[in-house]
Specification:
With 597 residues, this protein is an alpha+beta fold. It folds into two domains: 3-249, Carbamate kinase, CATH 3.40.1160.10; 254-419 and 448-592, 2-Layer Sandwich (VC0802-like). The strands form six sheets. Strands 14-15-13-16-19-18-23-24-22-25 form a ten-stranded antiparallel beta sheet. An eight-stranded mixed beta sheet has the order 3-6-2-1-9-11-12-10, sandwiched between helices. The protein has a four-stranded antiparallel beta sheet with strand order 21-26-28-27. Helix 9 (274-284) packs antiparallel against helix 16. The structure holds adenosine-5'-diphosphate and aspartyl phosphate (PHD). The site of adenosine-5'-diphosphate has 17 residues, from loops.
Protein backbone atom coordinates (compact mmCIF):
# COMPACT_ATOMS: atom_id res chain seq x y z
CA UNK A 1 0.00 0.00 0.00
CA UNK A 2 1.41 3.40 -0.91
CA UNK A 3 2.18 5.96 1.73
CA UNK A 4 1.18 9.61 1.34
CA UNK A 5 2.67 12.28 3.61
CA UNK A 6 0.44 15.32 4.10
CA UNK A 7 1.87 18.41 5.78
CA UNK A 8 -0.42 21.14 7.11
CA UNK A 9 1.17 24.50 7.84
CA UNK A 10 0.17 26.75 10.72
CA UNK A 11 -2.35 28.71 8.66
CA UNK A 12 -4.12 25.46 7.71
CA UNK A 13 -4.70 24.28 11.30
CA UNK A 14 -5.30 27.70 12.86
CA UNK A 15 -8.89 27.04 13.98
CA UNK A 16 -11.04 24.07 15.00
CA UNK A 17 -12.80 24.29 11.61
CA UNK A 18 -9.52 24.12 9.75
CA UNK A 19 -8.30 21.26 11.92
CA UNK A 20 -11.45 19.31 11.06
CA UNK A 21 -10.97 20.09 7.36
CA UNK A 22 -7.38 18.82 7.49
CA UNK A 23 -8.57 15.69 9.29
CA UNK A 24 -11.26 15.09 6.66
CA UNK A 25 -8.68 15.26 3.91
CA UNK A 26 -6.42 12.72 5.59
CA UNK A 27 -9.38 10.42 6.25
CA UNK A 28 -10.47 10.64 2.59
CA UNK A 29 -6.93 9.78 1.46
CA UNK A 30 -6.87 6.79 3.81
CA UNK A 31 -10.27 5.62 2.59
CA UNK A 32 -9.00 5.90 -0.98
CA UNK A 33 -6.59 3.11 -0.09
CA UNK A 34 -3.40 4.82 1.14
CA UNK A 35 -1.51 4.82 4.39
CA UNK A 36 -1.33 8.40 5.65
CA UNK A 37 1.26 10.25 7.70
CA UNK A 38 0.29 13.81 8.56
CA UNK A 39 2.87 16.37 9.60
CA UNK A 40 1.39 19.31 11.43
CA UNK A 41 2.74 22.75 12.38
CA UNK A 42 1.78 24.88 15.36
CA UNK A 43 -1.56 26.65 14.98
CA UNK A 44 -1.62 30.07 13.32
CA UNK A 45 0.92 32.41 14.91
CA UNK A 46 1.48 30.20 17.93
CA UNK A 47 5.25 29.93 17.41
CA UNK A 48 5.59 33.71 17.09
CA UNK A 49 3.54 34.16 20.27
CA UNK A 50 5.82 31.79 22.16
CA UNK A 51 8.89 33.63 20.88
CA UNK A 52 7.38 36.94 22.05
CA UNK A 53 6.49 35.50 25.41
CA UNK A 54 10.04 34.32 25.97
CA UNK A 55 11.29 37.79 24.98
CA UNK A 56 9.15 39.29 27.76
CA UNK A 57 10.98 37.10 30.29
CA UNK A 58 14.55 37.55 29.07
CA UNK A 59 16.63 39.17 26.34
CA UNK A 60 18.61 36.01 25.78
CA UNK A 61 16.53 32.90 26.31
CA UNK A 62 18.67 29.78 26.72
CA UNK A 63 18.43 27.86 23.42
CA UNK A 64 17.62 24.55 25.11
CA UNK A 65 14.63 26.03 26.91
CA UNK A 66 13.57 27.87 23.76
CA UNK A 67 13.29 24.55 21.92
CA UNK A 68 11.43 22.99 24.83
CA UNK A 69 9.02 25.92 24.61
CA UNK A 70 8.58 26.17 20.83
CA UNK A 71 8.03 22.44 20.38
CA UNK A 72 4.84 22.70 22.46
CA UNK A 73 3.06 24.53 19.64
CA UNK A 74 3.21 21.43 17.48
CA UNK A 75 2.39 19.12 20.39
CA UNK A 76 -0.88 20.97 20.88
CA UNK A 77 -1.87 20.78 17.22
CA UNK A 78 -1.06 17.08 16.67
CA UNK A 79 -3.26 16.13 19.62
CA UNK A 80 -6.15 18.21 18.27
CA UNK A 81 -5.75 16.78 14.76
CA UNK A 82 -5.66 13.20 16.08
CA UNK A 83 -8.85 13.85 18.08
CA UNK A 84 -10.51 15.27 14.97
CA UNK A 85 -9.63 12.17 12.95
CA UNK A 86 -11.01 9.91 15.66
CA UNK A 87 -14.32 11.79 15.68
CA UNK A 88 -14.51 11.02 11.94
CA UNK A 89 -14.30 7.32 12.72
CA UNK A 90 -10.67 6.51 11.86
CA UNK A 91 -7.81 5.52 14.10
CA UNK A 92 -5.11 8.15 14.66
CA UNK A 93 -1.99 8.42 16.80
CA UNK A 94 -0.26 11.71 17.49
CA UNK A 95 3.51 11.48 17.95
CA UNK A 96 6.16 14.01 18.92
CA UNK A 97 9.50 14.04 17.12
CA UNK A 98 11.07 12.15 20.02
CA UNK A 99 8.35 9.51 20.04
CA UNK A 100 8.86 8.87 16.33
CA UNK A 101 12.64 8.74 16.71
CA UNK A 102 13.67 11.82 14.75
CA UNK A 103 17.24 12.08 15.88
CA UNK A 104 19.06 15.37 15.41
CA UNK A 105 22.34 16.99 16.34
CA UNK A 106 22.41 19.27 19.39
CA UNK A 107 22.31 22.66 17.65
CA UNK A 108 19.27 23.99 19.47
CA UNK A 109 16.95 26.21 17.39
CA UNK A 110 18.59 25.08 14.14
CA UNK A 111 19.13 21.36 14.58
CA UNK A 112 19.84 19.09 11.65
CA UNK A 113 18.26 15.69 11.21
CA UNK A 114 20.66 12.77 11.47
CA UNK A 115 18.41 9.74 11.38
CA UNK A 116 14.77 8.82 11.52
CA UNK A 117 13.47 5.53 12.81
CA UNK A 118 10.50 4.21 10.84
CA UNK A 119 9.55 1.37 13.26
CA UNK A 120 6.98 3.17 15.35
CA UNK A 121 5.33 4.90 12.38
CA UNK A 122 5.15 1.62 10.43
CA UNK A 123 3.66 -0.19 13.39
CA UNK A 124 0.92 2.44 13.71
CA UNK A 125 0.26 2.45 9.96
CA UNK A 126 0.07 -1.34 9.87
CA UNK A 127 -2.47 -1.22 12.68
CA UNK A 128 -4.61 0.96 10.42
CA UNK A 129 -3.96 4.30 12.11
CA UNK A 130 -3.21 7.66 10.57
CA UNK A 131 0.06 8.91 12.06
CA UNK A 132 -0.05 12.57 13.08
CA UNK A 133 3.56 13.71 13.43
CA UNK A 134 4.66 16.94 15.09
CA UNK A 135 6.63 18.99 12.58
CA UNK A 136 9.75 21.06 13.24
CA UNK A 137 11.17 18.99 16.12
CA UNK A 138 13.39 16.09 17.07
CA UNK A 139 15.58 14.94 19.94
CA UNK A 140 19.33 14.74 20.37
CA UNK A 141 21.28 11.77 21.74
CA UNK A 142 20.36 12.75 25.32
CA UNK A 143 16.67 13.11 24.44
CA UNK A 144 16.80 16.89 24.72
CA UNK A 145 14.12 18.38 22.51
CA UNK A 146 15.49 20.26 19.51
CA UNK A 147 13.81 22.31 16.77
CA UNK A 148 14.85 22.52 13.14
CA UNK A 149 14.66 26.28 12.61
CA UNK A 150 11.67 28.42 11.67
CA UNK A 151 9.57 26.93 8.90
CA UNK A 152 11.04 23.51 9.69
CA UNK A 153 7.85 21.44 9.36
CA UNK A 154 8.33 21.26 5.57
CA UNK A 155 11.68 19.65 6.32
CA UNK A 156 10.11 17.13 8.72
CA UNK A 157 7.51 16.21 6.10
CA UNK A 158 9.99 15.69 3.29
CA UNK A 159 12.37 13.76 5.51
CA UNK A 160 9.58 11.44 6.71
CA UNK A 161 8.50 10.95 3.08
CA UNK A 162 12.11 10.08 2.19
CA UNK A 163 12.59 7.44 4.90
CA UNK A 164 9.12 5.95 4.38
CA UNK A 165 9.60 5.99 0.59
CA UNK A 166 6.25 7.73 0.27
CA UNK A 167 4.60 7.98 -3.13
CA UNK A 168 4.18 11.75 -2.62
CA UNK A 169 4.69 14.42 -0.03
CA UNK A 170 1.86 16.94 -0.12
CA UNK A 171 2.41 20.37 1.44
CA UNK A 172 -0.95 21.95 2.23
CA UNK A 173 -0.97 25.70 2.60
CA UNK A 174 -3.04 28.86 2.16
CA UNK A 175 -2.33 29.40 -1.56
CA UNK A 176 -3.11 27.40 -4.72
CA UNK A 177 0.50 26.26 -5.15
CA UNK A 178 3.85 27.76 -6.03
CA UNK A 179 3.36 31.07 -7.82
CA UNK A 180 5.65 32.99 -10.17
CA UNK A 181 6.23 35.23 -7.15
CA UNK A 182 4.61 35.88 -3.78
CA UNK A 183 0.92 36.43 -4.62
CA UNK A 184 0.61 38.63 -1.55
CA UNK A 185 2.97 41.13 -3.18
CA UNK A 186 2.06 40.80 -6.85
CA UNK A 187 -1.61 40.25 -7.48
CA UNK A 188 -1.02 39.15 -11.10
CA UNK A 189 1.32 36.33 -10.06
CA UNK A 190 0.32 33.00 -11.63
CA UNK A 191 0.40 29.48 -10.29
CA UNK A 192 3.11 27.27 -11.78
CA UNK A 193 2.05 23.72 -12.77
CA UNK A 194 5.40 22.05 -12.28
CA UNK A 195 8.81 23.31 -11.23
CA UNK A 196 12.20 21.60 -10.93
CA UNK A 197 13.93 20.91 -7.62
CA UNK A 198 16.78 23.21 -8.63
CA UNK A 199 14.51 26.16 -9.38
CA UNK A 200 12.49 25.65 -6.21
CA UNK A 201 15.69 25.38 -4.19
CA UNK A 202 16.84 28.73 -5.53
CA UNK A 203 13.42 30.34 -5.13
CA UNK A 204 13.14 29.12 -1.54
CA UNK A 205 16.62 30.18 -0.53
CA UNK A 206 16.25 33.56 -2.25
CA UNK A 207 13.14 34.42 -0.26
CA UNK A 208 10.04 32.60 -1.55
CA UNK A 209 8.47 31.77 1.81
CA UNK A 210 6.15 29.08 0.49
CA UNK A 211 8.72 26.31 1.05
CA UNK A 212 11.67 25.81 3.34
CA UNK A 213 14.82 25.32 1.23
CA UNK A 214 16.14 22.49 3.43
CA UNK A 215 13.03 20.48 2.60
CA UNK A 216 13.78 20.76 -1.13
CA UNK A 217 17.31 19.57 -0.43
CA UNK A 218 15.80 16.42 1.08
CA UNK A 219 13.42 16.03 -1.83
CA UNK A 220 16.24 16.30 -4.36
CA UNK A 221 18.63 14.04 -2.44
CA UNK A 222 16.10 11.27 -1.92
CA UNK A 223 13.97 11.88 -5.05
CA UNK A 224 10.76 12.64 -3.14
CA UNK A 225 7.96 14.02 -5.34
CA UNK A 226 6.60 17.10 -3.59
CA UNK A 227 3.29 18.79 -4.25
CA UNK A 228 2.31 22.18 -2.83
CA UNK A 229 -1.50 22.26 -2.59
CA UNK A 230 -4.25 24.49 -1.21
CA UNK A 231 -5.67 23.26 2.10
CA UNK A 232 -9.05 24.92 1.39
CA UNK A 233 -9.91 23.37 -2.01
CA UNK A 234 -9.23 20.42 -4.30
CA UNK A 235 -6.78 22.38 -6.46
CA UNK A 236 -4.03 20.21 -7.98
CA UNK A 237 -1.32 22.58 -6.78
CA UNK A 238 2.28 22.55 -8.03
CA UNK A 239 4.45 19.50 -8.51
CA UNK A 240 8.10 19.91 -7.54
CA UNK A 241 10.05 17.25 -9.40
CA UNK A 242 13.44 16.58 -11.03
CA UNK A 243 12.40 18.54 -14.13
CA UNK A 244 10.02 21.44 -14.60
CA UNK A 245 7.42 21.97 -17.35
CA UNK A 246 8.24 20.97 -20.93
CA UNK A 247 7.20 24.30 -22.41
CA UNK A 248 8.92 26.14 -19.67
CA UNK A 249 9.42 29.87 -19.59
CA UNK A 250 12.96 31.17 -19.62
CA UNK A 251 12.34 32.67 -16.19
CA UNK A 252 10.08 30.63 -13.90
CA UNK A 253 9.83 32.90 -10.91
CA UNK A 254 10.97 35.86 -8.87
CA UNK A 255 11.88 35.99 -5.21
CA UNK A 256 12.26 38.93 -2.87
CA UNK A 257 14.17 38.95 0.41
CA UNK A 258 13.13 42.25 1.97
CA UNK A 259 15.18 42.39 5.13
CA UNK A 260 18.74 42.07 3.93
CA UNK A 261 21.88 43.82 5.06
CA UNK A 262 25.14 44.21 3.18
CA UNK A 263 28.57 43.70 4.68
CA UNK A 264 31.71 44.60 2.72
CA UNK A 265 35.33 43.88 3.50
CA UNK A 266 37.20 46.60 1.66
CA UNK A 267 40.93 46.94 1.00
CA UNK A 268 41.77 43.38 2.00
CA UNK A 269 44.91 41.69 0.66
CA UNK A 270 44.67 40.24 -2.84
CA UNK A 271 46.57 37.04 -2.17
CA UNK A 272 45.91 33.34 -1.72
CA UNK A 273 44.21 32.60 1.58
CA UNK A 274 42.20 35.79 1.92
CA UNK A 275 38.87 34.19 1.12
CA UNK A 276 39.66 31.17 3.28
CA UNK A 277 40.05 33.46 6.30
CA UNK A 278 36.88 35.40 5.50
CA UNK A 279 34.79 32.25 5.05
CA UNK A 280 36.30 30.53 8.09
CA UNK A 281 35.23 33.43 10.30
CA UNK A 282 31.70 33.31 8.91
CA UNK A 283 31.47 29.52 9.26
CA UNK A 284 32.74 29.68 12.85
CA UNK A 285 29.64 31.70 13.71
CA UNK A 286 27.40 29.62 11.45
CA UNK A 287 26.44 32.65 9.40
CA UNK A 288 24.76 31.65 6.19
CA UNK A 289 25.96 34.09 3.56
CA UNK A 290 23.49 34.94 0.81
CA UNK A 291 24.90 36.89 -2.09
CA UNK A 292 28.68 36.76 -2.25
CA UNK A 293 30.34 39.23 -4.54
CA UNK A 294 34.06 39.28 -5.03
CA UNK A 295 35.21 41.22 -8.04
CA UNK A 296 38.67 41.33 -9.60
CA UNK A 297 41.15 43.14 -7.45
CA UNK A 298 42.74 46.49 -8.21
CA UNK A 299 45.96 47.99 -6.95
CA UNK A 300 46.83 44.90 -4.91
CA UNK A 301 43.75 45.02 -2.72
CA UNK A 302 40.58 43.01 -3.02
CA UNK A 303 37.06 43.48 -1.80
CA UNK A 304 34.31 41.08 -0.95
CA UNK A 305 30.70 41.93 -0.18
CA UNK A 306 27.90 39.69 0.89
CA UNK A 307 24.40 39.94 2.18
CA UNK A 308 22.91 38.36 5.26
CA UNK A 309 19.44 38.56 6.78
CA UNK A 310 19.34 41.81 8.77
CA UNK A 311 18.76 39.82 11.95
CA UNK A 312 22.26 38.32 11.53
CA UNK A 313 23.97 41.68 10.92
CA UNK A 314 25.48 42.25 14.38
CA UNK A 315 26.98 38.77 14.50
CA UNK A 316 28.24 39.10 10.92
CA UNK A 317 29.94 42.41 11.66
CA UNK A 318 31.79 40.83 14.56
CA UNK A 319 32.89 37.95 12.30
CA UNK A 320 33.95 40.42 9.60
CA UNK A 321 35.99 42.47 12.09
CA UNK A 322 37.68 39.25 13.23
CA UNK A 323 38.46 38.41 9.59
CA UNK A 324 40.01 41.83 8.96
CA UNK A 325 42.14 41.44 12.10
CA UNK A 326 43.24 38.01 10.90
CA UNK A 327 44.11 39.41 7.47
CA UNK A 328 46.06 42.33 8.93
CA UNK A 329 44.50 44.84 6.52
CA UNK A 330 41.18 46.22 5.36
CA UNK A 331 38.06 47.66 6.88
CA UNK A 332 34.43 46.65 7.28
CA UNK A 333 31.54 48.60 5.81
CA UNK A 334 27.88 47.80 5.96
CA UNK A 335 24.58 48.96 4.61
CA UNK A 336 21.02 48.34 5.68
CA UNK A 337 17.71 49.27 4.06
CA UNK A 338 18.47 46.97 1.15
CA UNK A 339 16.53 44.10 -0.39
CA UNK A 340 17.50 41.26 -2.68
CA UNK A 341 15.48 40.76 -5.83
CA UNK A 342 16.18 37.61 -7.84
CA UNK A 343 14.95 35.90 -10.96
CA UNK A 344 15.16 32.11 -11.30
CA UNK A 345 14.81 29.82 -14.30
CA UNK A 346 16.58 26.86 -15.90
CA UNK A 347 16.04 28.60 -19.26
CA UNK A 348 18.94 30.91 -18.40
CA UNK A 349 21.31 28.02 -19.04
CA UNK A 350 20.42 28.16 -22.71
CA UNK A 351 19.20 31.69 -23.47
CA UNK A 352 21.05 34.98 -23.79
CA UNK A 353 19.61 38.39 -23.01
CA UNK A 354 17.91 37.47 -19.75
CA UNK A 355 20.12 39.65 -17.54
CA UNK A 356 19.84 42.58 -19.93
CA UNK A 357 16.06 42.32 -19.83
CA UNK A 358 15.98 42.27 -16.04
CA UNK A 359 18.36 45.22 -15.73
CA UNK A 360 16.40 47.20 -18.34
CA UNK A 361 13.13 46.71 -16.46
CA UNK A 362 14.79 47.92 -13.26
CA UNK A 363 16.19 50.92 -15.12
CA UNK A 364 12.73 51.72 -16.51
CA UNK A 365 11.45 51.73 -12.94
CA UNK A 366 14.25 54.11 -11.91
CA UNK A 367 15.80 51.50 -9.64
CA UNK A 368 19.56 51.54 -9.11
CA UNK A 369 21.29 48.17 -8.86
CA UNK A 370 23.73 48.16 -5.96
CA UNK A 371 25.17 44.67 -6.44
CA UNK A 372 24.74 41.82 -8.92
CA UNK A 373 25.57 38.15 -8.71
CA UNK A 374 24.50 35.26 -10.88
CA UNK A 375 24.60 31.50 -11.04
CA UNK A 376 23.60 29.23 -13.88
CA UNK A 377 19.88 29.52 -13.09
CA UNK A 378 19.49 32.76 -11.14
CA UNK A 379 20.34 36.44 -11.21
CA UNK A 380 20.24 38.35 -7.93
CA UNK A 381 20.34 42.11 -7.55
CA UNK A 382 20.57 44.22 -4.44
CA UNK A 383 18.24 47.23 -4.52
CA UNK A 384 17.04 49.77 -2.00
CA UNK A 385 14.34 48.39 0.28
CA UNK A 386 11.91 51.24 -0.29
CA UNK A 387 11.79 50.49 -4.02
CA UNK A 388 11.81 46.71 -3.82
CA UNK A 389 8.12 45.89 -4.10
CA UNK A 390 7.63 48.21 -7.03
CA UNK A 391 10.75 46.70 -8.62
CA UNK A 392 9.35 43.19 -8.08
CA UNK A 393 6.12 44.09 -9.87
CA UNK A 394 7.98 45.73 -12.76
CA UNK A 395 10.33 42.81 -13.34
CA UNK A 396 7.44 40.34 -13.04
CA UNK A 397 5.53 42.18 -15.75
CA UNK A 398 8.63 42.59 -17.92
CA UNK A 399 9.05 38.82 -18.10
CA UNK A 400 5.31 38.45 -18.81
CA UNK A 401 4.94 36.15 -15.84
CA UNK A 402 1.38 37.40 -15.48
CA UNK A 403 0.51 35.81 -18.85
CA UNK A 404 -0.19 32.13 -19.65
CA UNK A 405 2.87 30.05 -20.58
CA UNK A 406 1.72 29.16 -24.07
CA UNK A 407 2.58 32.66 -25.26
CA UNK A 408 5.95 33.11 -26.96
CA UNK A 409 8.73 33.75 -24.45
CA UNK A 410 9.03 37.39 -23.47
CA UNK A 411 12.77 37.44 -23.80
CA UNK A 412 15.84 35.59 -24.62
CA UNK A 413 17.44 34.14 -27.70
CA UNK A 414 18.19 30.47 -27.44
CA UNK A 415 21.93 30.12 -27.80
CA UNK A 416 22.47 26.56 -26.67
CA UNK A 417 20.43 23.40 -27.21
CA UNK A 418 18.21 22.52 -24.26
CA UNK A 419 19.23 18.84 -23.92
CA UNK A 420 20.18 17.96 -20.38
CA UNK A 421 23.22 16.07 -21.68
CA UNK A 422 24.78 14.36 -18.73
CA UNK A 423 21.69 14.43 -16.47
CA UNK A 424 21.66 10.67 -15.96
CA UNK A 425 25.32 10.53 -15.00
CA UNK A 426 24.73 13.40 -12.58
CA UNK A 427 21.84 11.46 -11.04
CA UNK A 428 24.02 8.39 -10.68
CA UNK A 429 26.79 10.41 -9.02
CA UNK A 430 24.28 11.99 -6.65
CA UNK A 431 22.84 8.63 -5.72
CA UNK A 432 26.31 7.24 -5.01
CA UNK A 433 27.20 10.12 -2.70
CA UNK A 434 23.82 10.13 -0.93
CA UNK A 435 23.97 6.40 -0.24
CA UNK A 436 27.19 6.95 1.72
CA UNK A 437 25.95 9.79 3.93
CA UNK A 438 26.44 9.28 7.65
CA UNK A 439 23.54 11.58 8.53
CA UNK A 440 20.53 12.51 6.43
CA UNK A 441 21.20 16.22 6.33
CA UNK A 442 24.91 15.99 5.69
CA UNK A 443 26.22 18.11 2.89
CA UNK A 444 26.45 16.42 -0.49
CA UNK A 445 29.31 17.32 -2.81
CA UNK A 446 28.99 15.17 -5.90
CA UNK A 447 31.40 16.79 -8.37
CA UNK A 448 34.15 19.33 -8.82
CA UNK A 449 34.18 20.73 -12.35
CA UNK A 450 36.92 22.55 -14.23
CA UNK A 451 35.89 24.82 -17.10
CA UNK A 452 38.74 26.21 -19.17
CA UNK A 453 36.61 27.61 -21.96
CA UNK A 454 35.77 31.04 -20.56
CA UNK A 455 37.27 34.53 -20.68
CA UNK A 456 36.73 37.44 -18.29
CA UNK A 457 35.87 41.08 -19.08
CA UNK A 458 35.95 43.74 -16.37
CA UNK A 459 34.73 47.32 -16.62
CA UNK A 460 35.81 49.59 -13.79
CA UNK A 461 34.91 53.13 -12.82
CA UNK A 462 31.48 53.10 -14.40
CA UNK A 463 28.82 55.51 -13.17
CA UNK A 464 26.64 54.12 -10.39
CA UNK A 465 23.19 55.13 -11.58
CA UNK A 466 20.04 53.44 -12.89
CA UNK A 467 20.29 52.05 -16.40
CA UNK A 468 24.04 51.53 -16.62
CA UNK A 469 24.03 47.73 -16.32
CA UNK A 470 21.06 47.62 -18.65
CA UNK A 471 22.99 49.48 -21.36
CA UNK A 472 26.01 47.29 -20.97
CA UNK A 473 24.24 43.96 -20.99
CA UNK A 474 21.74 44.95 -23.67
CA UNK A 475 24.63 45.73 -26.00
CA UNK A 476 26.20 42.34 -25.29
CA UNK A 477 22.89 40.50 -25.67
CA UNK A 478 22.03 42.32 -28.89
CA UNK A 479 25.31 41.04 -30.26
CA UNK A 480 24.12 37.50 -29.38
CA UNK A 481 26.88 36.91 -26.86
CA UNK A 482 25.90 34.54 -24.08
CA UNK A 483 27.10 35.80 -20.71
CA UNK A 484 27.85 33.26 -18.01
CA UNK A 485 28.83 34.93 -14.71
CA UNK A 486 28.05 38.52 -13.79
CA UNK A 487 29.51 40.17 -10.71
CA UNK A 488 28.97 43.78 -9.70
CA UNK A 489 30.27 45.16 -6.42
CA UNK A 490 28.86 47.88 -4.30
CA UNK A 491 30.07 51.22 -5.61
CA UNK A 492 32.71 53.56 -4.20
CA UNK A 493 32.47 57.35 -4.66
CA UNK A 494 29.76 56.88 -7.25
CA UNK A 495 31.72 54.38 -9.34
CA UNK A 496 31.04 50.68 -9.76
CA UNK A 497 32.87 47.72 -11.24
CA UNK A 498 31.30 44.93 -13.26
CA UNK A 499 32.90 41.68 -14.38
CA UNK A 500 31.43 39.12 -16.71
CA UNK A 501 32.59 35.87 -18.22
CA UNK A 502 31.85 34.67 -21.74
CA UNK A 503 32.91 31.80 -23.95
CA UNK A 504 36.46 32.51 -25.10
CA UNK A 505 35.36 32.22 -28.72
CA UNK A 506 33.02 35.17 -28.11
CA UNK A 507 35.60 37.38 -26.40
CA UNK A 508 36.55 39.54 -29.40
CA UNK A 509 32.91 40.21 -30.27
CA UNK A 510 32.08 40.93 -26.66
CA UNK A 511 34.96 43.41 -26.35
CA UNK A 512 33.85 45.27 -29.47
CA UNK A 513 30.32 45.58 -28.11
CA UNK A 514 31.43 46.60 -24.64
CA UNK A 515 33.99 49.14 -25.92
CA UNK A 516 31.30 50.98 -27.80
CA UNK A 517 29.14 51.36 -24.72
CA UNK A 518 32.04 52.18 -22.43
CA UNK A 519 33.32 54.95 -24.73
CA UNK A 520 30.53 57.23 -23.42
CA UNK A 521 31.87 57.03 -19.84
CA UNK A 522 35.18 58.95 -19.88
CA UNK A 523 36.50 57.53 -16.62
CA UNK A 524 35.66 53.91 -17.32
CA UNK A 525 38.39 51.39 -18.01
CA UNK A 526 38.12 48.03 -19.70
CA UNK A 527 40.33 45.06 -18.93
CA UNK A 528 40.03 41.45 -19.98
CA UNK A 529 41.66 38.11 -19.46
CA UNK A 530 41.28 35.22 -21.90
CA UNK A 531 43.34 33.01 -19.59
CA UNK A 532 40.96 32.06 -16.80
CA UNK A 533 39.62 28.81 -15.42
CA UNK A 534 36.41 28.31 -13.48
CA UNK A 535 36.23 25.72 -10.72
CA UNK A 536 32.82 24.65 -9.50
CA UNK A 537 31.95 22.54 -6.50
CA UNK A 538 28.58 20.94 -7.24
CA UNK A 539 26.23 19.42 -4.67
CA UNK A 540 23.23 19.92 -2.44
CA UNK A 541 23.05 22.16 0.59
CA UNK A 542 26.08 24.25 -0.31
CA UNK A 543 24.61 27.40 1.10
CA UNK A 544 22.82 26.03 4.12
CA UNK A 545 26.02 24.30 5.27
CA UNK A 546 28.26 27.18 6.15
CA UNK A 547 31.49 25.17 5.99
CA UNK A 548 31.65 24.48 2.24
CA UNK A 549 33.07 27.86 1.25
CA UNK A 550 35.60 27.54 4.05
CA UNK A 551 36.74 24.12 2.83
CA UNK A 552 36.86 25.21 -0.80
CA UNK A 553 38.83 28.39 -0.18
CA UNK A 554 41.12 26.72 2.36
CA UNK A 555 42.04 24.07 -0.24
CA UNK A 556 42.77 26.75 -2.86
CA UNK A 557 44.79 28.77 -0.36
CA UNK A 558 46.85 25.73 0.65
CA UNK A 559 47.66 25.25 -3.04
CA UNK A 560 48.68 28.98 -3.18
CA UNK A 561 45.98 29.80 -5.70
CA UNK A 562 44.53 33.30 -5.86
CA UNK A 563 40.83 33.83 -6.53
CA UNK A 564 39.59 36.46 -8.97
CA UNK A 565 35.81 36.07 -8.83
CA UNK A 566 33.35 34.06 -6.78
CA UNK A 567 29.79 33.10 -7.35
CA UNK A 568 27.51 30.82 -5.39
CA UNK A 569 24.16 29.14 -5.64
CA UNK A 570 22.29 26.39 -3.83
CA UNK A 571 23.89 23.72 -5.97
CA UNK A 572 27.17 25.24 -7.11
CA UNK A 573 29.98 27.31 -5.63
CA UNK A 574 32.35 28.64 -8.29
CA UNK A 575 35.67 30.49 -8.28
CA UNK A 576 37.59 31.99 -11.18
CA UNK A 577 41.38 31.57 -11.10
CA UNK A 578 44.23 31.97 -13.59
CA UNK A 579 44.03 29.28 -16.29
CA UNK A 580 47.62 28.23 -15.63
CA UNK A 581 46.45 27.17 -12.15
CA UNK A 582 43.19 25.51 -13.20
CA UNK A 583 44.41 21.91 -13.15
CA UNK A 584 46.22 22.30 -9.85
CA UNK A 585 43.12 23.91 -8.35
CA UNK A 586 40.95 21.09 -9.65
CA UNK A 587 43.17 18.45 -8.05
CA UNK A 588 43.24 20.34 -4.76
CA UNK A 589 39.45 20.57 -4.65
CA UNK A 590 38.88 16.93 -5.60
CA UNK A 591 41.15 16.01 -2.72
CA UNK A 592 39.51 18.43 -0.29
CA UNK A 593 36.10 16.96 -1.00
CA UNK A 594 37.38 13.35 -1.14
CA UNK A 595 36.33 12.80 -4.73
CA UNK A 596 38.19 10.82 -7.37
CA UNK A 597 39.40 12.54 -10.51
N1 LIG B 1 6.37 32.01 -4.98
C1 LIG B 1 5.40 31.86 -4.06
N2 LIG B 1 4.35 31.06 -4.32
C2 LIG B 1 3.38 30.88 -3.40
N3 LIG B 1 3.38 31.47 -2.19
C3 LIG B 1 4.41 32.26 -1.87
C4 LIG B 1 5.47 32.49 -2.77
N4 LIG B 1 6.37 33.30 -2.18
C5 LIG B 1 5.91 33.57 -0.97
N5 LIG B 1 4.71 32.96 -0.75
C6 LIG B 1 3.92 33.06 0.48
O1 LIG B 1 4.00 31.85 1.21
C7 LIG B 1 2.81 31.74 1.99
C8 LIG B 1 2.65 30.30 2.45
O2 LIG B 1 3.70 29.95 3.34
P1 LIG B 1 3.48 29.97 4.93
O3 LIG B 1 2.81 31.24 5.35
O4 LIG B 1 4.76 29.57 5.58
O5 LIG B 1 2.38 28.84 5.03
P2 LIG B 1 2.20 27.66 6.07
O6 LIG B 1 1.69 28.28 7.32
O7 LIG B 1 1.19 26.82 5.36
O8 LIG B 1 3.52 26.96 6.21
C9 LIG B 1 1.73 32.21 1.05
O9 LIG B 1 0.63 32.74 1.74
C10 LIG B 1 2.43 33.27 0.20
O10 LIG B 1 2.09 34.58 0.57
N1 LIG C 1 5.76 26.26 13.74
C1 LIG C 1 7.08 26.41 13.17
C2 LIG C 1 7.33 25.41 12.08
C3 LIG C 1 6.67 25.60 10.76
O1 LIG C 1 7.13 25.07 9.75
O2 LIG C 1 5.55 26.36 10.65
P1 LIG C 1 4.72 26.66 9.25
O3 LIG C 1 4.51 25.35 8.54
O4 LIG C 1 3.43 27.29 9.70
O5 LIG C 1 5.55 27.61 8.41
C4 LIG C 1 7.32 27.84 12.73
O6 LIG C 1 6.43 28.67 12.83
O7 LIG C 1 8.42 28.15 12.32
Amino acid sequence: MSIIVQKFGGTSVATAQKILAAARRAVATKRAGHQVVMVVSARGHKTDELVDLAAEITDSPPPREMDMLLSTGEQESVALVAMAIQTLGEKAVSLTGGQIGIQTDTSYTKARIRNISTDRMRRCLDEGAIVVAAGFQGVDDDLNITTLGRGGSDTTATALAAVLRAAECEIYTDVEGVFTTDPRLVKDARKVGRISYDEMLEMASLGAGVMHSRSIEFAKKFAVPLRVRPAYSDGAGTLIAPEGDEDQRVVSGLALARNEARVSLVGIPDRPGTMAIVFANMAARKIPIDMVVQNVAQGGTAEVSFTVPQSDLAETLTAAEDAVKGLGAGRVESGTAVAKLSIVGVGMRTHSGVAAHMFQSLADAGVNIQMITTSEIKISTLVSRDQCEEALRKVHAAFKLDKPTNEPPAVGVRQKPAGNGDASSQKRLLHEVVSKLAAMEDIVVSEVLLDESQARVTISEIPDSPGISAQLFSAVADGDVMVDMIVQNQSHSGRARVSLTVDRADLERCLLLVREVVSQWPEATLTYDPEIATLSVVGIGLRTHTGVGERMFRALADASINIQLINTSEMRMSAVVARSEGKKAHEALLKAFSLNS
